[in-house]
Amino acid sequence: MTLAILADIGGTNTRVALAEGTSVRLDSIRRFPNADYQARGQDIAQVLRDYLDQTGARVSGVCVAAAGPVQDGVAEMTNLSWVIDGAKLTAATGATRVAILNDLQAQGQALGHIAPGNLRRVIDGPQTQGAMLVVGLGTGVNAAPVHPAPKGRPMGRIVPPSECGHVNMPVRTEEDFQLIRFIEQKLKAEGEVPHAGVEEVLAGRGLANLHGFAAYAAGHPSSLTSAEVLAALDAGDAIAAHAARLYVHILGQMLADLALIHLPYGGIFLIGGMSRAMTPHFARFGLETSFREARRVDLLQRDFSVTVVEDDYAALTGCAAYLEAMG
User: Fold this and answer.
1) pLDDT tens-digit profile of 282-296?
2) Nearest C-alpha neighbor of 37 from the set 27, 28, 25, 46
3) What is the pTM (predicted TM-score) of this model?
4) 126 exposed, middle or buried (CB, 10 Å; 0-12, 13-18, 19+)?
């Protein structure tokens, strides 16, 4: 079977691996620090060359998942000055099959190819063969529908690009309104655009922002990192618990809105470090209650499931699946 080389380019490291068909060789995964390459004026092309030099592998396909927008086959990294196109990848690897995906698209392509042991159901519900929804909660926030391929279409499923992490934070309570004002004022003071998008409260920095708000509301202003908030939560700290409750409440509302927009009867799948970190707290702080609230239609009360993907290499699997579907 022919080999393919895969790369998942994150904000800090690039993970590179080999795949046979849709199967990623776990023993082939290696990490490369992006900062080292950027400092030398190099990019993903040199990363791939170094990997192939180290392993001696010969590949016929290459697929890259990039943390940034992909337009007309060209990816521009959000946190790196890397521009990636097919010609660059072919020159670096000699591969004839070339694909470039947004990292969230790669995660969507992985659904259906992830081992059951790496899937944790957090909200039960019916699951059919219809559209799915992948929601990324990590350094940033994003979500995209995952549609089955139309009959007769030679390629695999369709995962359109998205930047919905920057949509407005849902507001349902007076406290939500106060939170938005707090986030806006904080961003303005930091010289940032004062927009309270969902990324400001659900991304890695989001839990820290929520803790800042909860501490301010309690009359004890403080500043903790998200990791410190999680540790305080495990220690039973009341302010950390307030922040976690807000996180789960907002997440449930966002997932409910997205479910009604996309109708993911095939399930909603949460990916990323924050989704895994918060999973133990979803039941305690009422994720299902927030998600399954009564609205004019009863879809949220009877349809859709929510599952956390605990596979750290899902984006690589998605790259492999996408290449295989290319034929």
Assistant:
1) 999 999 999 999 999
2) 46
3) 0.91
4) exposed
